[in-house]
Amino acid sequence: MTKILLTGANGGVGRRLRRLLPAFYPNLRLSDLTPPDDLQPHEEFVAADLADLAQVEAAVAGVDGIIHLGGLSTEYDWADILQSNIIGAYNLFEAARKHNVRRVVFPSSNQAVGFYPRHRRLGTDVTVRPSSRYGLSKAFGEAVAALYADKHGLRTLCIRIGRVHDLPEDERRLALWISPRDFVQLIRIGLEHPDIHFDLVYGLSSNDRSWYDNTRAYELGYSPEDRAEDHREHAMAEQAKLVRNPLADRFMGGRLCTVEYSGDLERSGT
Ligand SMILES: NC(=O)c1ccc[n+]([C@@H]2O[C@H](COP(=O)([O-])OP(=O)(O)OC[C@H]3O[C@@H](n4cnc5c(N)ncnc54)[C@H](O)[C@@H]3O)[C@@H](O)[C@H]2O)c1
Ligand SMILES: O=C(O)[C@H]1O[C@@H](O)[C@H](O)[C@@H](O)[C@@H]1O
To answer: Annotated catalytic, 134?
Structure first.
């Protein structure tokens, strides 16, 4: 039976996927720095720091596919991003190669292209414009995925996630939202679709206001069950509680673009 490793299993998305994935992948191994508080007796857990190749190899040994959620999920100091996301992503793919893992799904982020202004519509062939050191690390992860596909035959799907959550949390996330079950559908494409070599898709549910052209996901058979606009009222009510930030509102990456910003507004993201 296919054995799948879920890294970052103790995080926000990981906790949601632990509930949804066993229906498709009953033979699931979880990994993170520390185990979830509510680890169940039937769940297998292997602790591993992504920055430590030997630990990552121990977590990866014996699996057929990996969903790599582990790592820092927002902006941090370079030293931290370097360890968890840059060295961590490299270690994950290198361990996969050494242990003959066939498939890796890499959750990238809209933050890899976060400095594009919102009037643009992006396909998957645009130059990266990271919002932050975090976004930069996601662009690096996409590049590592491409290298290991082309050089070593690992089949990889990168999913530039908008925002995985139960509901869209504000106006920006209304344009970016993907429900956990639609995210699982994209993961299954990454782990199972026969045509995957190196592919890149956007992680969005059905979305009328999207900034992205997600043709490749639909070509691969993606058929989202959820629609962001159905939750418009909730998102806009949440938005009304927030203070507007004109710089954040200009770019797809929102507030992460504003962190430590000292750029030229006339030129940023153009
Ligand atoms: N939540 C979203 O909507 C969203 C959007 C875009 C991309 N992503 C990506 O999806 C993944 C999961 O996101 P999340 O919201 O669950 O993040 P999260 O921060 O809640 O969880 C990440 C997990 O990774 C673990 N981790 C961090 N550094 C590690 C290390 N050095 N070694 C081992 N484990 C380490 C953490 O302990 C944590 O449990 C992340 O890679 C994130 O960048 C998430
Ligand atoms: O852009 C966003 O809103 C999201 O981007 C993802 O990469 C981050 O992991 C998440 O924390 C953000 O909420």
So the answer is: yes
Which CATH number does 4-258 carry? 3.40.50.720
Q: Which of 25, 90, 116, 134 is catalytic?
A: 134
> Which one-letter amino acid corresponds to residue 246?
P
Distance from Cα 265 to the centre of ligand 1, integer Å: 30
What's the pLDDT tens digit per position in 16-47? 999 999 999 999 999 999 999 999 988 999 99
ipTM of the complex: 0.99
Mutation to probe ligand 1, out of 7, 10, 13 (largest number of atoms < 8 A from CB): 13
Over residues 62-103, the pLDDT tens digits come to 999 999 999 999 999 999 999 999 999 999 999 999 999 999
Full strand arrangement of the beta sheet holding 28-32: 44-47, 28-32, 4-7, 65-68, 103-109, 155-161, 198-203
